[in-house]
Amino acid sequence: MHAYRSHTCADLNKSNVGETVRLSGWVHRVRDHGGVLFIDLRDHYGMTQVLCDSDSPVFAEVEKLRSEWCIRIDGIVKARDESLVNAKLPTGEIEVYIRDMEVLGSAKELPLMVFGDQEYPEETRLRYRYLDLRREVMQRNMVLRSDVVASMRKRMWDKGFREFQTPIITASSPEGARDFLVPSRLHPGKFYALPQAPQQFKQLLMVSGFDKYFQIAPCFRDEDPRADRSPTDFYQLDLEMSFVTQQDVFDTIAPVLGGVFEEFGGGRKVDAPAEWPQISYADAALKYGSDKPDLRNPIEMQVVSEHFAGSGFAIFAKLLEQEGTEIRAIPAPTGGSRKFCDRMNSFAQQQGLPGMGYIFWRETDGQMEAAGPLAKNIGPERTEAIRQQLGLGVGDAAFFLGGKPKSFEAVAGRARNVIGEELGLTDKDRFAFAWIVDFPIYEKDDETGKIDFEHNPFSMPQGGMEALEGDPLKVKGFQYDLACNGYEIVSGAIRNHKPEIMFKAFEIAGYPKEEVTKRFGGMVNAFQYGAPPHGGCAAGVDRIVMLLADEDNLRDVMLFPMNQRAEDLMMGAPSEPTSDQLMELSLRVIPQE
To answer: What keywords are annotated for this sequence in UniProt (predicted)?
Structure first.
C-alpha cells in the first residue's frame, strides 16, 4: 500500500465497503459521542467520516487529536445505517473504522478556525494565509481560478493563437501607474522596471511577424489598493493581433470570455456576445455616470435641463445660466415615497454634494399628484413634462443633479447603482456585458488650458493624421473597454503604428519628438521598418474570477495577496535590505523625516 493513502477523502463509496484503506488529511472536526470518536477527515478533494471506539488499538492516540492536525489512518470501510447517510457528501454512505493511525503533523492552537464560516480580520487571514486557504470557500475559489485560466488557454489555442512569454525585467515605461524599479548591480545608478503590462513587447511581436499572440501575463503596478485592484501585481489574459480592425478584436475575445462565463457562471444568464451593446464613452457617462456601467440595472439617466431653465427653482435655473452646465434626472421606478427620497438625498450628502433634488408621484383623491420640494417650485406643467419624458407614473420618483457634468457624474452613477439595488431593479442572476468605445484621446485642464492625454496615448486616432489637424478635444481613439456588472474587465485598442501620426499625437499634448524617441525608442524605431496595423486587449483574470466566484474583493481569489498597505504580512515584505546588499547595488537609503 502507498505510504500515505490508497484513496483521497472524496473517493470512497458503497462499492468500497469491506475494503482496508489508507487515508491522509487534516482533522476538520472531532465529535465525542461517549466512547466513540467521530472525525471528519479532510483533504483537497473532499471529506470522509472516520471513527474510533475503545476496541481500536489506537483509541488513546486518537483521543489526543485536535483540529487541523495532519494524520494518516488505516481502517475498514463500512456502510452507514440508512438513517445516518449524509446525502450532501459524495462519501456520505460510508465511514471508516480506524485500526491504525500516524500523526504526520500536529498543530498549535489555531489563530483562525478552518471549520465553520466565522469572519476574521483581514490582517489575521493574510498573516496566516496557509490556514485561511484551507477553508472550503477559499479552496473552491482557487480551484475556480485555475480552471478559468486553463479554459482561457484552451479557447485561445482553439482560435489559432500561440502563447509567448515576454520579459519580466525591462525598461521603465509610463503606462498610467508607478513602476516598481529594480536596481542594476552591473550598471550602478541605473534601474530596470517590472512591466506594468507586456504592451510594448506584444506590439513588437506583431512587428516581428507573429500574427497572433496571447499570454497569461503577470503585471506589476505600484498602485493605491482598492477592493477590485491589487496594489502590487495582477494577471491578465493578454492578446495582440495583426491586420485587424476594432470589430475583429471584439469578435475574437467576446466568444472566449462569453464561453468562460457560461462555463463557470453557475447557471447565471450570459447574453450572447453578438448582443453585447457598443456604447460610446460619452453616452456611458450620460446614461450611467460611469465608463463601466452595470447594465443589470435598467435605469438610464437623462438630460432634463429644458424643464428647469427659467423655472421657479432658482438653484438649477441659475446653474443653467453658466456655460457647460446641465441638469440630469435619475428615474426611480417604484421609488415614490418620501422616506426613500429623503434617504437618497442623504446619500448624496454623504458623497460630498449639497443634496439631490427629487420629485415623486402619488395618487391623491383619485388623481396623480407630483410631490416634493422641486414639484412645488417648478409647477405642474414642468413636472408633468418631466414625468412624460422619463416614462414614470404613480409610485415612481426621479432624482436630479446639476452643474458641470464632470462635477457630479460619478456621484450620479453611484446613486443610480444604489437606487437599482434598493428598489430590486438590478437583475442579480445575470452577467451583463457592454463594449465602451469612442474614448476621447485628449482633455483640457480647466485651470491651465493645457491639452494632455485623457486616455491611452498609443491608440490610433479615428481619422488618422487628418483628425489631428482639427480640434484635439474632438479626437476619438480606436480604444475600447469591456464592462461587466459594473467592473472593467477588458481594456484595449487598435494601436498607432505609424511614427508620423504618433509624433503628431504626442506633439499636441506637448511632448516633442526627441522626448518620445527617448522614452519609447524601441517601439518608435521598430515602427520605421514595416509595422503592420495591429491591435489587441487585455482581460483581467483576477476580476473575472472575482465576478464568477461572487466575491467583492480580489484578495478572495488571489493565493497570496498583499494587504491594503501593500504589505505581505506572512512573508514580511517589504523588508529592509542588508548593508552588503545596498553596497553591492551602489545604493544608500536616506532616512525619512
So the answer is: Aminoacyl-tRNA synthetase, ATP-binding, Cytoplasm, Ligase, Nucleotide-binding, Protein biosynthesis
Is 495 labelled a binding residue? yes
Residue 73 and residue 57: Cα distance in Å, rounded?
Answer: 12
> Per-residue DSSP letters for 345-365?
HHHHHHTTSS--EEEEEEEET
DSSP conformation class of 251: H
Residue 474 C-alpha cell reads as 474632438
Say yes or no to pLDDT of 175 above 80. Answer: no
Whether the Cβ atoms of residue 259 and residue 181 lie closer than 8 Å to each other: no
C-alpha span between 194 and 179 (Å, rounded): 7
Query: Is 42 annotated among the ligand-binding residues?
Result: no
What are 564-573's pLDDT values in tens digits?
Answer: 889 999 999 9
The verdict on whether residue 576 carries a ligand-binding annotation is no
Q: Which three-class secondary structure string do you get for 180-206?
A: CEEECCCCCCCEEECCCCCHHHHHHHH
Give the contacts of 233 (CB within 8 A, at least 6 positions apart).
218, 219, 220, 221
User: Hey, how many other C-beta atoms are within 10 angstroms of the C-beta on 406?
Assistant: 11
Distances (CA, A) of 480 to 439, 441, 536, 574: 7, 12, 10, 36
540 belongs to an annotated ligand binding site: yes
Strands 47-53 and 94-105, how do they pair?
Answer: parallel
Q: Is 175 annotated as a binding residue?
A: yes
Residue 545 annotated as lining a ligand binding site = no
Count other C-beta atoms under 10 Å from residue 475's C-beta: 20
Alpha helices (H) in 167-304, listed in sequence order: 199-207, 246-264, 281-288
Q: Of 429, 438, 436, nearest to 463 (Cα)?
A: 438
Helix axes 405-422, 281-288, angle to 10 degrees: 60
- Residues in Cβ contact with 166 at an 8 Å cutoff, skipping those fewer than 6 apart: 195, 198, 201, 202, 205, 215, 217
State how far Cα 77 lies from the chain centre: 45
Residue 223 known to bind ligand: yes
Distances (CA, A) of 63 to 38, 68, 75, 104: 10, 14, 16, 16
Contact 262, 586 (CB under 8 A): no
Give the cell for residue 30: 472531532
Task: Give the SS3 label for residue 386.
Answer: helix
Q: Which residues contact 337 (CB under 8 A, 6 or more apart)?
A: 360, 397
Q: Is 589 labelled as part of a ligand binding site?
A: no
The rounded distance, in Å, linking the Cα atoms of 399 and 332 is 7
Condensed to tens digits (0 to 9), the pLDDT of residues 215-270 reads 999 999 998 877 778 889 999 999 999 999 999 999 999 999 999 999 999 999 99
User: Residue 541, annotated ligand binder?
Assistant: yes
CA distance 339 to 32: 54
Is pLDDT at 519 greater than 80 in this prediction?
yes
543 annotated among ligand-binding-site residues:
yes
Q: Is 122 annotated as a binding residue?
A: no
Cis link prior to 574 (omega < 30° from 0)?
Answer: yes
